[in-house]
């Protein structure tokens, strides 16, 4: 896929790769003489796309929140769940109690599930430690996953995810005494690729997040933000003023916020799993993103509370069915736009001078990747030009 047709689809295509990446792509009939002698691997006429990229996950975490799922379905309110010690704080407790090895062991099946769907790059956030040691422990675990599996991990510091119980009512003190020092320590240990926050009434104000972003800026780190998920506090516009790589969720974003994103070149990361799981009614402004040419990415938001969803293919289907994105937009959302949301320019498209990371599908048309749900049509991944040998 790399032409001018819808999806950039090229029929009867060929891709020439070297250890440095993609050298050439086009119709097999047009293979240049310079690469005609290359050894060939016949993919049987299957559909080939860029390997998928999940640009927003919290897949490293301790414990699970199935009990809350059950409590809510037995009629408990969010407040009653929170009073019973539920919510993010419940995961914080389990994550603090888990060792780094425990976190890795619990994350491996989750990352294997993404790999099995053709994912070759995944973003993983901290944010369930909310103390310096545990935030660093989460990021170390995330980094080590890349050494244990054939996948690239991009880490995001999310210390501004929630105010921990010991700082209840003292958000600014938490930012000054824990969050910002943790960011600096994590950066010192080279554990951080980007910095995120949760701008919401139940979390931090845009002004508070801006203090974390000022620290990120002083360290030369890019930013992104969970914004306008449950209300409009102006978080997206604030983050856009920092040149945010992406703004994520965005159900309650208005047109001025979309325009601010367009001016900043920020990507809108669409997270249908959380919308579905919390039974939100307000859909993100997909029409405004189109109108103002704001690129849209699609991700799982894999987390134990608001989006315990481990399938990027299902996220693509939900983005179409729930938010009316087209299958072409959904596939761009898990390839080239997901790469842009992570600040990556070397992947996400099948084009010369890009990584030779591909997903080969038992499918005849790209729309099949969003059309089905609960079915995985992946035939194999090709990573760095090499056939990916399944681990299991
Ligand atoms: O419920 C959780 O554990 C995470 C909630 C999650 N975090 C965030 O910033 N938005 C969310 O939906
Ligand atoms: Fe999230």
From TrEMBL:
Show the InterPro entries listed in the entry.
Answer: Amidohydro-rel (IPR006680), HutI (IPR005920), Metal-dep_hydrolase_composite (IPR011059), Metal_Hydrolase (IPR032466)
- The protein's superkingdom reads Bacteria
Please give the catalytic activity noted in the UniProt record.
4-imidazolone-5-propanoate + H2O = N-formimidoyl-L-glutamate
Binding positions (4-imidazolone-5-propanoate): 65, 128, 161, 229, 306
Q: Which cofactors, if any, are listed as required?
A: Zn(2+); Fe(3+)
Q: Does the keyword tRNA processing apply?
A: no
Top-level enzyme category:
hydrolase
Q: Which residues are recorded as binding Zn(2+)?
A: 56, 58, 226, 301
Q: Does the keyword Iron-sulfur apply?
A: no
Cite the annotated pathway. Amino-acid degradation; L-histidine degradation into L-glutamate; N-formimidoyl-L-glutamate from L-histidine: step 3/3
Entries under Gene3D superfamilies matching the protein: Metal-dependent hydrolases (3.20.20.140), Urease, subunit C, domain 1 (2.30.40.10)
Entry's localization field = Cytoplasm
- Can you give the residue ranges of the Amidohydrolase-related domain? 47-365
The free-text note explaining how the cofactor binds reads: Binds 1 zinc or iron ion per subunit.
The UniProt keywords, alphabetically, are: Cytoplasm, Histidine metabolism, Hydrolase, Iron, Metal-binding, Zinc
The UniProt record lists the EC number as: 3.5.2.7
Which molecular-function annotation in GO is an example for this chain?
imidazolonepropionase activity
Per UniProt, where does Fe(3+) bind? Answer: 56, 58, 226, 301
Q: What does this protein do?
A: Catalyzes the hydrolytic cleavage of the carbon-nitrogen bond in imidazolone-5-propanoate to yield N-formimidoyl-L-glutamate. It is the third step in the universal histidine degradation pathway.
Q: Which NCBIfam families match?
A: hutI
What is the recorded name of this protein? Imidazolonepropionase
Source organism per UniProt:
Albidovulum litorale
Gene this chain is encoded by: hutI
């Amino acid at each position: 896929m790399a032409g001018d047709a819808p999806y950039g689809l090229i029929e009867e295509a060929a891709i020439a790769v070297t250890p440095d990446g993609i050298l050439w792509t086009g119709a097999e009939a047009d293979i240049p003489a310079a690469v005609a002698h290359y050894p060939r691997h016949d993919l049987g006429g299957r559909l080939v796309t860029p390997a998928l990229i999940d640009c927003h996950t919290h897949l490293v975490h301790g414990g699970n929140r199935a009990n809350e799922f059950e409590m809510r379905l037995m009629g408990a309110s969010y407040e009653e769940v929170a009073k019973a010690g539920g919510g993010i704080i419940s995961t914080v407790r389990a994550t603090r109690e888990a060792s780094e090895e425990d976190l890795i062991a619990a994350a491996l099946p989750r990352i294997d599930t993404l790999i099995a769907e053709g994912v070759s790059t995944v973003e993983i956030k901290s944010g369930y430690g909310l103390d310096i040691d545990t935030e660093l422990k989460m990021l170390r675990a995330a980094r080590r996953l890349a050494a244990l599996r054939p996948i690239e991990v991009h880490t995001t510091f999310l210390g501004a995810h929630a105010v921990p119980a010991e700082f209840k009512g003292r958000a600014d003190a938490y930012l000054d005494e824990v969050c910002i020092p943790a960011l600096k320590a994590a950066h010192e240990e080279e554990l951080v690729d980007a910095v995120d926050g949760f701008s919401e009434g139940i979390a931090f104000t845009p002004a508070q997040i801006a203090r974390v972003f000022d620290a990120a800026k002083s360290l030369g780190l890019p930013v992104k933000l969970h914004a306008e998920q449950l209300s409009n506090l102006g978080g997206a516009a604030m983050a856009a003023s920092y040149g945010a790589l992406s703004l994520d969720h965005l159900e309650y974003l208005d047109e001025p916020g979309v325009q601010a994103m367009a001016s900043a070149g920020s990507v809108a990361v669409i997270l249908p799993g959380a919308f579905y799981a919390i039974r939100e009614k307000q859909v993100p402004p997909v029409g405004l993103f189109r109108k103002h040419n704001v690129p849209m990415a699609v991700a799982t938001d894999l987390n134990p509370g608001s989006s315990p969803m481990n399938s990027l293919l299902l996220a693509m289907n939900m983005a179409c069915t729930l938010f009316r994105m087209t299958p072409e937009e959904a596939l761009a959302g898990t390839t080239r736009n997901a790469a842009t949301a992570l600040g990556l320019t070397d992947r996400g498209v099948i084009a010369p001078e890009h990584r030779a990371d591909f997903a080969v599908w038992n499918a005849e048309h790209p729309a099949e990747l969003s059309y089905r749900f609960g079915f995985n049509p992946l035939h194999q991944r090709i990573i760095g030009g090499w056939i990916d040998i399944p681990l299991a």
